[in-house]
């Protein structure tokens, strides 16, 4: 999941937008998403059984909400960072991630790692790439007018490669 920090010589405005996290067939949907700081997160349960949404940033619990099928809860996303979400009702396989950012320039990759970021102003950026298992990597990128930019991001596998 790449995001780009503001150009070095100017700032930008990221407006909060509503986002949602649903429980469908004993899986969180979507599994990975990005939200702008200050956004409202709607939590809901489309399954006919009880789920919880246990959200953590690092070791800190941000919220832990029980969601019977009839209940919907809204939470404000107030901190930048990676929120990991689990279900505590014996559904140990269920997980989701919400990356909270302050930049309007971000994208979630497809299953092949491809993404497109449109309307990105020309400038030099620090591209922060986050991977669920491999962590965060930052690389520099220059955007020049209407020319496309391609990023190749390589993670080392435990220093073996």
Number of individual domains: 1
Highest CATH level, the class: Mainly Beta
Q: SSE string, helix = H, strand = E?
A: EEEEEEEEEEEE
CATH architecture, please?
A: Sandwich
Number of helices: 0
Q: How many strand units?
A: 12
Strand content: 35-45%
Major sheet = 5 strands, mixed
Low-confidence stretches: 5-10
Mean pLDDT over the full residue set: 87
Give me the secondary-structure category.
mainly beta
Molecular structure report:
There is one protein chain. The model is unreliable at about 5-10 (pLDDT under 50). The strands form 3 sheets. Strands 4-10-9-6-7 form a 5-stranded mixed β-sheet, with no helix packed on it. A 4-stranded mixed β-sheet has the order 3-2-5-8, with no helix packed on it. The protein has one domain: Immunoglobulin-like, CATH 2.60.40.420. By secondary structure, the protein is mainly beta. Helices cover about 0% and strands about 45% of the residues. The chain has strands spanning about 1-5, 20-25, 30, 30-35, 40-45, 50-55, 60-65, 75, 80-85, 95-100, 125-130, 135-145. It has no helices and 12 strands.
